[in-house]
Amino acid sequence: MTLDLFLQHLTNGISLGSLYALIAIGYTMVYGILRLINFAHGDIFMMSVYFAFFGVATFGMPWYAAFLLAILLTGALGILVERTAYKPIREAPKISILISAIGASFLLENLATVIFGGRPKTFPQIELFTKMVDVGAVRIQMLTFMIPVITVALLIGLLYLINHTKSGMAMRAVSKDIETARLMGIDVNRTISFTFGIGSMLAAVGGIMWGLKFPSILPLMGVIPGLKCFIAAVIGGIGNIKGAVYGGFILGVGEIMLIAFLPELTGYRDAFAFILLIVILLFRPTGIMGEKISEKV
Fold first, then answer.
1. Residue 122, SS3 per DSSP
2. How many Å apart are CA 34 and CA 125, to the nearest integer?
3. Which terminus of the chain has fewer Cβ atoms in its 10 Å neighbourhood, N or C?
4. Distances from the Cα of 171 to the Cα of 192, 253, 257, 282, 288, angstroms
5. Exposed (0-12), middle (13-18) or buried (19+): which is 218, by Cβ within 10 Å?
6. What count of other Cβ atoms lies within 10 Å of the Cβ of residue 122?
7. What digits encode the pLDDT tens for the residues 204-240?
8. In angstroms, rounded to a whole number, what is the distance separating the alpha carbons of residues 126 and 63?
9. For 271-292, b where at least 16 C-beta lie within 10 A, e where not — what string?
């Protein structure tokens, strides 16, 4: 493999890893506070792509306005899912919450199929993102450069929010002990909804860039990316935001390099993520940056 080809694959891997990282952050934020896996997160990611698609293709909105509206609507959808599927049974056994999460996932998938139709649609392509850039002998799409930059910028903003604002302080307090946070005057319900909203908005950014990178969209498009991003969160250490980002990059680069060096294994690309998950759970169950935590009762 030539150096130029290696660089091409590396940039593609970093770009894909950045998308995984953005979506994985939502999983890890929710788990960090509630110790539950939001299995509807991949479907919220899917809905964001449809919101952006209809904003541009059906309502004729400028792409930047449609994308912003899609991000806000997705944040609101995340809060709605939390208020209807999780809040009423927050004190119930963990298995009940897990079943509710799976039910919310199926509901969103089938609702999207009924409303949007089961046929694949083509996400609008925008010249700013699709134009090619020459780097030496390598031609790389502008979007490939932009995705990691956007991911890093959003990560910095999120870390600032968590570490230097009152809302972030409330999130950290709730993640440590919900009852103690409530006794200290923190509005726990509002904090949890805020966390779901932020995680869903980050997933929306990832979803929009996913639509630009992989233009074919359909109601079940969030299933495999959702599972892979959950795996990325586990690899990095679920509950740790930086760990989720590292896990996303590891998974994305690993996938691309696998098919680059071993093209005969292209059909096993998705299996790579699950094999990596098994290896991580065997040798480091808490993930790369995870810490041992006790279950809340």
1. strand
2. 38
3. C
4. 8, 31, 37, 31, 23
5. middle
6. 11
7. 999 999 999 999 999 999 999 999 999 999 999 888 8
8. 8
9. ebbeebbeebeeeeebbbbbee
| Distances, alpha carbon 211 to alpha carbons 22, 27, 59, 198, 221, in Å | 14, 20, 18, 20, 10
Does residue 35 contact residue 296 with C-beta atoms inside 8 Å?
A: yes
List of residues 6+ apart from 61 with CB closer than 8 A: 55, 69
Sign of CA dihedral 283, 288, 294, 295: negative
Residue 86 DSSP label: I
Q: Write down the pTM of the prediction.
A: 0.90
Q: How crowded is residue 157: how many other Cβ atoms within 10 Å of its Cβ?
A: 11
The count of C-alpha atoms lying within 13 angstroms of the C-alpha of 89, restricted to the half-sphere facing its C-beta, is 15
